[in-house]
Amino acid sequence: MYLCESKDSEFRQGLMQAFQAKLQPILGENFMTTIADSFRQEGMQQGMQQGMQQGMQQGIHMAKLEDACKMLIKGLDENFIADITELSIEEIRMEAARLKNSDLH
Question: Is the pLDDT of residue 74 over 70?
């Protein structure tokens, strides 16, 4: 429908008539609603997939941070922890500082 919005009204009218002539016999009177609903459904599915992927990635990252904390408590070297968890040295140092601060309170 972007094309409909980007061209002049005569073009838009011709395009809508072509859609109507071809799709109305197949999809019925509410063919535009059907098309819009299918696009909406597809967008929702893509959004849900992206949300699930992001959630899983965040969960994995949180688990790595928890593992790093456990290793820091055991006194393991930060380079070793970085190799095992695939976290950056900076992230490990931030966790170490957080642990240190939590011990002070």
Answer: yes
